[in-house]
Amino acid sequence: MGIRVVVAEDSYLIREGLRLLLATQEGIELVAVAADLTELTAAVDEHRPDVVVTDVRMPPGDQDEGIRFAESLTRSHPRIGVVVLSQHLEPEWALRLFAAGAAARAYLLKERVGDAAQLRQAIETVAASGTFLDPLVVEALVQTRARRAPSPLARLTPREREVLSLIATGLSNTAITHRLVLTERAVEKHITSLLAKLDLDPDDTHVHRRVQAVLLYLAAADG
């Protein structure tokens, strides 16, 4: 059985585009589509999918329905992963999405939904209780930080920044070693160093500190 997905998107063209795109993906089963928050709630209650792919803004309010729905799922259906699609880079939405826990949550710019590989990676990541941030979001936030006053990120070396950016895209240590052509030990040393430089609580779990490091980009852009 593949990953069972519910899609929520008020735009007919985008909704149908997602339907057609996911239909071509082996191992992914689209079980329902919804045009608004009411339909999404009913679809999740009926089908209990593995993953929900939802726009940030949906009727009836066209404000932050997708984020609020993800927040409610954390309490009612914590095993369901959520991929939130955003028309624009909105750091406060990303912060809210990850505030209750980063596991099984992804933030993806809507312009990327035509990239089947990118969307599939986000769906597979959250289905496995992982965290995914659109690389374009990370790049924009890195550029934003470069224009701001010195911050903890200014303490990082260029290589540590590069490693952090790859962590933010959801890559494992092993995948980072292949991408940067480094040994796994070298990657682990870079990660240990950057977490220390960012003054993250050493008593927190390693996984949570990795997520906190990525969220520093979002917090800074929002400030």
TrEMBL record:
PROSITE patterns: HTH_LUXR_2, RESPONSE_REGULATORY. Residues 149-221 form the HTH luxR-type domain. CDD domains: LuxR_C_like, REC_NarL-like. Coiled coil: none annotated. One of its GO terms (biological process) is phosphorelay signal transduction system. Keywords: DNA-binding, Phosphoprotein, Transcription, Transcription regulation. The modification 4-aspartylphosphate is found at D55. This is DNA-binding response regulator. Residues 4-125 form the Response regulatory domain. Pfam families: GerE, Response_reg. GO terms for molecular function: DNA binding. InterPro entries: CheY-like_superfamily (IPR011006), NreC/VraR/RcsB-like_REC (IPR058245), Sig_transdc_resp-reg_receiver (IPR001789), Tscrpt_reg_LuxR_C (IPR000792), WalR-like (IPR039420). It comes from Phytohabitans suffuscus. Transmembrane segments: none annotated. SUPFAM superfamilies: CheY-like.
